[in-house]
Structures are given as structure tokens and as C-alpha cells.
Design brief:
Strand order of the largest sheet: 1-2-3
Radius of gyration: 24 Å
Distance between the termini: 39 Å
Shape: elongated
Helix content: 40-55%
Largest sheet: 3 strands, antiparallel
Order of helices and strands: HHHHHHEEEHHHHHH
Oligomer: single chain
Number of strands: 3
Length: 258
């Protein structure tokens, strides 16, 4: 967050402002981008620098206090390449395959993956707060392999969480978001967004279906509102599988994974 404010500081220094006490509201407005995510990021970064200084009375006023932050630039969720999804679901790295399966098939977020307990997984279902997820067969296979791996590596652990790291295996705290993303090799949100977009496409952009399946509320509109985007249509056509064999029945939304 603070790094977003770094471009502003040399610019003020070049104008002879050698102390943060001499920076005024007009100085901040002069250096801020006009709008969108760059403006939000830089202003938040400056506030993270100036607020602690004011609280410690190193500066007397915070020049960012009365400045309107604005809204970040809205982004469009994008699908993931099928080959990359298959690679993430490969079973060579057992924790990675289990994490990827939960994100790809059931759109779990990194926060949900961090908080999962071993007791939340039973009878082929995943019991989340407020909803129960019937696990897909490929997910069950990868989770079974992960549980064997977990029991072999930490046979006496007291940690109740499902996913363990080298650090948390000897404690009781959950793994971090950073660990989840490092194991996956990418942000969990990329895999989650692909699943939500695929469901939106399979249901013709029906928000109620996405809300019921994944526990979303108005956030579902972010995915159902992308159905007419030319880039997404082109991506779907490019990654479409071979046409079904004659006489074979295929349901909308069906998708096979390794």
C-alpha cells in the first residue's frame, strides 16, 4: 500500500518540500491522478504514511484528510485458459491439486480455504457457514490424496485446520492467504472467477443460480453482466471442446477435467 505513494514523494522533494510538515492539501491534489484506481492507491498510500505521523505529533495536520478518494476503476472478471486449469489440477503436487480443485470446481476463496477445518469435510460434503457443498468427484479424489499426505507428514498435529504448512503444522493457527496463493502459483481469485464465469455462461446469466451455489449476493451481478462481452465470447469459442459425439447427451454446463 505504502509503495503506491512513493512516486509522489520525490516529486514534492524536487519542488523544495524537504519536510512532510510543509506538504499542503493543494500539493497532494497537484500530484494525485485524476480518478480511478491510480488515484485511490496513491491517496491511500499517502494516508498510511501521514496518519501515523500525525498521531505521534510529528506533523500537525494531515493534508489528505479532506480529499475525496473516489472509486477504483471497475474491472471485468476474465476466464482462465483451460490448459492452465488442467495444469493446476495435476496431482504431482498434492496440496496444490487439492486447493486448486476446491477453487476451480466450487469457487472457494482464499479466506475460505484458510479457515477450513478437517471436521468441515465429511460424507462427501463440505460444510461451510450457511451452506453445504456436495463435492464433485474430482475434488473428492484430490482431497482424499491430500488427507493421506497430511496424515503422513503431520501424524500428531493438534492443528484443526484442513490445510497445513511447515509453519502451522506445529501450531493451531490457520495458513495465510499468502501461503495459499504461493502454493497455487497465482491468486486464488483467478481460479474462483473462472468458475463463476463458467456457471454464469452455463445458466444464461441467471444470478439466482450463482447466489444459491456459491453463497454470493449482489456480487453475482459482476459475473452475469459479462455475458455479452465480445472478449468472453471469443474466449469461449477458442476454448470450446470438441463437439459431442452423435447420440451422446450433454447437459449445459457439463465440463470434464482430468
Amino acid at each position: 500500500m505504502v509503495t503506491n505513494a512513493l512516486p509522489a514523494l520525490p516529486a514534492r522533494a524536487a519542488q523544495g518540500k524537504d519536510s512532510l510538515r510543509s506538504i499542503t492539501c493543494d500539493d497532494v491534489l497537484a500530484i494525485l491522478p485524476d480518478s480511478g484506481t491510480p488515484r485511490v492507491d496513491m491517496l491511500q498510500g499517502l494516508r498510511h504514511i501521514l496518519w501515523p505521523l500525525k498521531n505521534r505529533r510529528i506533523i500537525f495536520t494531515d493534508p489528505t484528510a479532506q480529499i475525496f478518494c473516489g472509486m477504483p476503476t471497475p474491472t471485468i472478471p476474465l476466464p482462465f485458459e483451460v490448459d492452465a486449469l488442467r495444469e493446476n489440477l495435476g496431482e504431482q503436487h498434492v496440496p496444490r491439486a487439492a486447493l486448486a480443485a476446491l477453487a476451480v470446481f466450487h469457487a472457494l476463496s482464499s479466506g475460505q480455504l484458510c479457515r477450513l477445518k478437517s471436521t468441515d469435510l465429511r460424507d462427501g460434503r463440505l460444510f461451510l457457514p450457511g451452506r453445504t457443498v456436495l463435492l464433485a468427484d474430482p475434488v473428492r479424489i484430490r482431497l482424499a490424496a491430500y488427507l493421506d499426505y497430511r496424515n503422513r507428514r503431520w501424524p500428531r498435529t493438534a492443528n484443526p485446520h484442513l490445510f497445513l504448512s511447515q509453519t502451522t503444522g506445529c501450531g493451531v493457527e490457520p495458513v495465510s492467504h499468502v501461503w495459499i496463493n504461493d502454493v497455487l502459483g497465482m491468486p486464488t481469485s483467478r481460479l474462483r472467477e473462472d468458475r463463476l464465469l463458467h456457471e454464469a455462461e452455463a445458466t444464461g446469466g441467471e444470478p439466482r443460480r450463482i447466489c444459491d451455489l456459491f453463497g454470493l449476493s449482489v456480487a453475482a451481478l459482476r459475473y452475469t453482466g459479462t455475458m455479452d462481452q465480445p472478449g468472453l465470447i471469443e474466449h469461449s469459442l477458442r476454448n470450446a471442446g470438441p463437439p459431442p459425439r452423435q447420440g451422446a447427451e450433454q447437459k449445459p454446463g457439463d465440463h470434464s477435467w482430468p
